[in-house]
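Q: I have 1533 residues here and want to know how they pack in 3D. Can you give me a structure?
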Amino acid sequence: MLPQHLKQIRVLLLNDKEELERTLFRLKQGFELQFRLGPSLQGRKVSVHTNYPDEGQQFERNTFRELTWNNPTGREDDSDKSCFLDVKIAGSYQYYFGYGDTKRSGGGYILVDPVLRVGADSHVLPLDCITIQTYLSKCLGYLDDWLDRLRVAQSSGYNMIHFTPLQTLGESRSCYSLADQLTFNPEFSPEGQSYSWVDVGALVEKIRTEWNMLCITDVVYNHTASNSVWINEHPECGYNLVNSPHLRPAWVLDRAIWHLTTRVADGRYAAKGLPANIINEDHLNAMRNVFREDVFPEIKLWEFFQVKAEASVEQFRTMLQNGTKPKTERKEGLKIIQDPGYHRYGNTVDMDSALETFIPHSSSPQHIEECCSLLRQRLNALNDEQHHIVHQHQEQAIGCVVGNVVYERLADHGPKLGPVTRKDPLVTRYFTFPYDEMTLVQEMLLMEEEDKACHFLAHNGWVMSDDPLRNFAEQGSNVYLRRELICWGDSVKLRYGNGPEDCPYLWAHMQKYTEITAKYFNGVRLDNCHSTPLHVAEFMLDVARTVRPNLYVIAELFTGSEEMDNVFVTKLGISSLIREAMSAGDSHEEGRLVYRYGGEPVGAFVQPSLRPLIPSIAHAMFLDVTHDNECPIQLRSALDSLPSSAVVSMACCASGSTRGYDELVPHQISVVKEERLYPKWNPSASASSSAEVGLDTGIIAGKLALNKLHQELATMGFMQVYVDQVNTDIVAVTRHSPSTHQSVVAVCRTAFWNPKTHQYDTNVPPMFIPGKIEEVVLEARTVKRTAGSYKKDDDYINGLPEYTVEIKEHIPLQESTVVKQAAITSKGPSEFVQEITFQNLTPGSVIAFRVSLDPKAQQIAGVLRYYLIQFSPKYKRGSVVDENPPSALQKPLAQLMSTLTLADMNVLLFRCDSEEQEDGGGCYNIPGWESFKYAGLQGLMSVLANIRANNDLGHPVCANLRQGDWLIDYVSNRLINKEGPLAQVGQWLEAMFDYLKHLPRYLIPSYFDAILVAAYTTALDATFKLMSSFIQNGSTFVRHLALGSVQMCGIGRLPALPPISTQIEDVPYCLNAVTGLKEQRCVSLAAGLPHFSSGIFRCWGRDTFIALRGLMLLTGRHSEARNIILAFAGTLRHGFIPNLLGEGLCARYNCRDAVWWWLQCIQDYVNHVPQGNEILCCPVSRMYPTDDCEPCKPGEVEQPLYDVIQEALQRHLEGISFRERNAGSKIDMHMKDEGFNLAVQVDPATGFVSGGNRFNCGTWMDKMGEGDRAKSKGMPATPRDGAAVEIVGLSKSAVRWVVELHAEGLFPYDGVNIHRDGKEVFMPYAQWNEQLQQSFEKAFWVSGDPKDPNEKHADLVHKKGIYKDSYGASTPWCDYQLRPNFTIAMVVAPELFSVERAWNALDVAEKKLLGPLGMKTLDPDDMVYCGVYDNSLDNDNYNLAKGFNYHQGPEWLWPVGYFLRAKLYFAKKLGEETYSKTVTMVKNVLSRHYTHLERSPWKGLPELTNENGQYCSFSCETQAWSLSCVLEVLYDL
């Protein structure tokens, strides 16, 4: 078992309703495949099934097993939940998944590559190493001679041989028309011998072990030879007129065309202008007329599709007379039933439909006759329609027949068959006819005799542009009737049906054939794959893999689309698809194919071992030419054979050729007609010999060198490819090794046009090759020699003797005869470029250079890899030990990182532009692109993650890195300028970058990314070690959210918090560089980035204390949380905590809720932190001990925190009323004068904290109108005056808590003395607590019952079963608006709510307010609802101008946390089933936040979205409370 960091793991994300059956996913054996849930499935009870067999089980295609889910972090969410497969067996496997009652809601296939082994030691032959050569078996002669003939492949450097079928051939002698699939062709046995499959198997094994070569052969499932004995005995195995009567009309036409052939051959149509020798358009026109005037009128094909009208009318009349009624009422009109036997006039009328359609007014003879007459008319019309359809089929048939004749007899590129004879008929017959000749009339009678008609079998062939998934011989297809089949007249199409039960003999016969093939051969080529029924090929290949698990399967597909190719590749498990260089029309296209079929770009990024499973294209077997295609010499020139072969050999995939190509055979070696033998191997064969070939023959010497090179490049990991189209004829292909940085550059001068007729440019441009040329691997030119001219031999397949290859291998550059000179041109310190000028790069030449980096760069790359080994062993290869390590690199990075604090991590990883500007810097900007979101590593990682996954080397960031060192220096210098451990990390990066800068520029993006990934992942590991066990053991989602704590909590150049008491221990200090004095360096919490990140707008009381529990307490940052609580405590004034902190000096005390959030946080601190109650006694340095004093110096007035808490409660019970300091436009340019007056009191009747007025907004919904045109300036959109529901909940939580604290002896006060009606009275907290408990539901529950005694404004109720948003608002209807704020009260004070009512209200909120990411801030049914926030809109719309609707619809994220936590709390009260469903729902909602977080370049959650989760450009991209509240939900889970 591989160690985890080396194991290749691919992750497939499952998404609801995603069918990926036409997507190709390839895996190697030994990989692990993980299925994980996409957002649409998280939280659901998903089951994944696969037919990949369990350990030790046999594969059964239709046997699926359920995989077991594994959730490494427990239950909080599904982000890491996975089930996995260890893939160890080659083949094609299916998976599907479903949930609930949906058994299947998506699925697809995975393809596992086979592992091929050769040699006596069975070493692995990688698929990209394969070089294959095809042999037409019938040209090999006796089995005893095979090794001598096959030695040509071995001596030419091939490592795989493809044999066309070795079975007994049919009478046509086509390699693919087999008479008997089970017998070894007796032709291969000399007289007196009888070789069998066992002998073939021994030969194949000998070739495998002694020659290190594999052998594969074809399997032909689609057809058998027409003269196969077994098809005569089992005609049910083909498509005949008995089992496929729909072919009867086509058979009649086929026989008619045969009789036409005989008459034309006998000259009987010459008088009509149609002679036997058809040579011009007039003859073709005459033929068209003969069909129209003679053939079709005689055979009357339309009759097979028509109804006998009179007989049907007669039957109908009788039924009407008998008063017959229709059996069913369908109202579909008259229906004709096609005769399943396809007899003439065999179609019948569906009498039910006739009775329904033609209803007589009465049963009188006259009315019945009227109906019969109408039916007759309709039937005649339908017969006419059928006649018209058949006429169209006939016209198409004429067109196809004429097209065939043109190709076979007139076209220059056709076979020019000459006159029509019985041997060369007008067109190929579509059906067998195993009887003596007779007249057409007599033949028609045979159709009715089943024992004869069953032997009229349809031939096979192919149909141009047909749907490959459709069987053209089945009912519903008119291919045979319309003569659209390009027919193979020697082969019968096989009819398998839907499974073995439909044709037992055929399936058993073909299964035996498959087993024989798989037993003796290492792989198969699926002949005619795109026409083979998929279910048949699937079944047979399953059989084959049972015999040979690592079966290599290749096929050539002509489906016309990659998506359709994938259907075959995935279902059948095709290992390699045959692709052909001959399909390229010019060298440019040939080069593009190399790039398309394999490898990654040069300088590609290092991919992690665990990464998403991405769709791929089918593995290619790229051949210079296939054995059944035209000869390249005829289409191009003999000179092109070598360079095009070289282009093919440089492709990073399997490659190969067909026997004859390398010997320059100047014609296609026909699979049907060729009967000569291949020459044998003789190393010293003479140029003129036909019976033997050697290294001097054709381009064999060149091919040997290219094959060796192809195999070396694949074995040594040269997996990166670059194709350069130098000019019209010259293609340069580079293969590069990403670990050793060696390259091989092959420059190929193609010769697509015959030099006798085409003038090639003599001017060859110079080439610039980066690096040091170590050697010329090979240089080869196709040259002419005097060896006589080509004469086709009678016995042997011979090639052009007049050409050979001049070749040199492994020579120094100066010995090259192709290169004139090589000059060194340097492009800077890290570039070493050689300029190559050519002198002999003639058409038909190839030169390949082995190139290294220059020695210095090579050494440096090795050292850089050495330092990267500490992060991943994959860098070992190509690494060089650094003998003199710089001091900065002497400690491992993890050790340096372990000394950083979380505040340091904020600098290292994050900091947005405005935070960085405080230090005089900023985020790095790439001209013409954009700035990174953060100055720290996360800014780069967010962008590089996408670049890396797609190898997007053209991205502006990569271009910037190649152009100069600016970004590289920015990353390290930014940290070096800090002090302490951060500077050490900066020095480590700088030392690594010093090496990086000496590499060639094309490698810099890849290594820069590798260094950054190393630093980033090490930083994350160190970060999580500093956090709580909840984070350390949490899911990926939990950790992503916890990074929000690092993102938001930092220390700026200027302190954001007022100083806390010097008596507090472990407070961080530093020396002020300007004053030289010691000052506190406490972490503060930004409200959101980028808008609320620096200066006085960084810290807000409300935002801080809503976010503090999630981002600081749950993450384990207890002392930093304590410091923030105490710093804000020091600023208490008027009984309020400031909204905008402004370091305490510029604080604004204009919010009614911040103090209650602060109290909630102290409660959370006490409950969550070990010995948390000690905070109550911590000294608080008061800035404003009295309301009207000037700010006190730190330490001047100090009191314990419990006294500050008491003061806050006392002031509220006493009643608060003041006017903001400096009231006016200086502190708020929009507020009206009345808005600066603040008043809060506790309602003596209810205990509710109540306050505010309609000119200010004291809760989080604090949008102040700014629109002059809209006249909204100074008017709050949401004043929420009175008792806001969340403040009532928070105050209840606080009062309950102090009662409990007092009971435990942790809080010295049990109430307060207050003045009421001029008297001092004591108000016990227990009484206040009870009062709130008794009053809440009476005041806030909206029952919707008009008789409810608690309902004062029944007329304002428009949603019932909810809780009011406020109580006692100056505008009463505002109380009744549905908003998400009641869910906050549910979480902090659940005791206020009765379970059933709470659940009902949450249900309404879910239906009406819950969006994809956030909660709508207002009921969409409300008349002022608007879900799109646009702060720049300046119009006269009061409800919208200048973003007035900030809290009137847009979907804010943080309330979702409280809504979900409330759902979980009350679901638990309702029992296990409800709770389980709720957990599912919560996980599903949260999955969308996880997806957003993963994809966001800010790695955060936004402040808000517009309606339905749409992006809002005015929102903070990442907001503290959004992250915090979602993290709290996961904690509750």
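Q: Anything worth noting?
A: The longest strand covers residues 772-784. The longest helix spans residues 365-410.
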